[in-house]
Specification:
The chain is an alpha/beta fold. 29% of the residues lie in helices and 25% in strands. The strands form three sheets. Strands 1, 4, 6, 7, 8, 14 and 15 form a seven-stranded mixed beta sheet that branches. Strands 11-10-9-12-13 form a five-stranded parallel beta sheet, sandwiched between helices. Strand 10, helix 6 and strand 11 form a beta-alpha-beta unit. Helix 4 packs across helix 5 and helix 7 packs parallel to helix 8. The protein is globular and about 60 Å long. 47% of the residues are buried. The structure holds NADP nicotinamide-adenine-dinucleotide phosphate. The site of NADP nicotinamide-adenine-dinucleotide phosphate has 24 residues, from helix 2, helix 4 and helix 5.
Length: 320
């Protein structure tokens, strides 16, 4: 049984009816209000973070039924609770990951069904909460896969990405010494957190080794695909000490780890802990810009431009 105070309305949803380039296939549609199935909740979306994965979805990642909604990172107010869900009631402030791979509408919508969620703590805004889910899950899981523990020297390549920025903070929390490559956007913030920082690009291997003195024990590559993996292998001295979250083809060719072929468990279970740290101002995922839902195309263009400089967040409720 679904417990609901659902209004008899549809939902606006950014979604695609055919696979292809996001700028060509995405539209803001009127869609049927999605029902929360068993073990799911539905929220009235307050904020939704966009990610590179949204554009990959349009191009055919997780192929399946169409139409398909985009937007995984959601915060909102519960308006319906699916069968089997305990401890959540209508009106609760939650954030988490939308039913993403296969839903006719997802987080970039007025209403969204969530597959994973945590309570939004006092002191954390809906926008700040919507910046967390995919970034926190990916950074935490990747550091676990890599085996990052106290006392190691760990390089995060691409620490100006949201996943990289989160991974630097998490590695420091684990007691690692961290060296990061990043552009100008977050270099000073990363230094203030306690990381050694250099720019990415030509000469990075020499700059990293002059900062650390010896090869880092482990390297996490969180950069967008850029052909950098051979350089990271050169820095580490062993491809199995490198883990990438983006360049799976090069990883396979070079013997770099990427989680493919490994037993991997998603780590949405840590969302609540990192939300509390964020509410306490001891952890952050930077937000670049916010947009009304109907301005989704401007957000998409910035993201596709490759330099979003933090999370891009849609605000479906802003036109209410
Ligand atoms: N496998 C997974 O589960 C998973 C999950 C999430 C994301 N990902 C992938 O991980 C990557 C990062 O995702 P994200 O959402 O965190 O990205 P993002 O925040 O959208 O990353 C954008 C930032 O990347 C930096 N950048 C651009 N070109 C770079 C380069 N050549 N080298 C290093 N940094 C560069 C820029 O920051 P600067 O200001 O520093 O230049 C830019 O602002 C993406 O490729 C994404 O597809 C994988």
């Amino acid at each position: 049984m679904t417990v609901s105070c659902a209004p008899a309305v549809n939902t606006r949803a950014v979604r695609f009816h055919n696979y292809g380039e996001p700028s060509e296939v995405l539209h803001l549609d009127d869609a049927v209000l999605p029902a929360p199935g068993p073990e799911r909740i539905r929220v009235r979306v307050q904020a939704c973070g966009l990610n590179p994965a949204d554009w990959a979805l349009c191009r055919g990642l997780f192929p399946g039924g169409l139409p398909r909604g985009i937007g995984l990172d959601v915060s909102g107010i519960v308006d319906a609770v699916g069968e089997g869900v305990q401890g959540v009631v209508v009106g609760d402030a939650m954030f988490g990951a939308a039913d993403f791979a296969g839903a006719a509408s997802a987080g970039a919508a007025d209403f969204a069904v969530l597959q994973h969620w945590a309570r939004r703590p006092a002191g954390l805004t809906p926008v700040e909460a919507a910046a967390l889910p995919l970034t926190v899950e990916t950074a935490y899981r990747s550091l676990d896969s890599l085996g990052v523990t106290a006392g190691q020297t760990v390089m995060v390549n691409g620490a100006g990405t949201t996943v990289g920025f989160a991974a630097v903070q998490m590695a420091l929390m684990r007691g690692a010494r961290v060296v990061a490559s990043a552009g100008d956007t977050f270099a000073d913030q990363l230094r203030a957190l306690g990381a050694l920082v250099t720019s990415y690009g030509d000469g990075m291997a020499e700059r990293v080794l002059s900062l650390t003195g010896t090869a880092p024990d482990l390297i996490l590559d969180t950069a967008p695909i850029s052909g950098v993996l051979p350089v990271l292998v050169q820095i580490a001295g062993d491809p199995t000490h490198v883990f990438t979250i983006s360049d799976f083809a090069a990883a396979q060719a070079l013997g770099v780890r990427s989680g493919i072929g490994e037993a991997v468990s998603l780590r949405y279970d840590v969302l609540g802990d990192f939300a509390q740290l964020a509410a306490d101002r001891r952890f952050t995922v930077p937000v670049a810009l916010t947009f009304a839902l109907e301005d989704w195309r401007a957000a998409m263009e910035i993201s596709l431009g490759g330099q979003p400089r933090g999370k891009l967040i849609l605000l479906p409720g802003s036109a209410d």
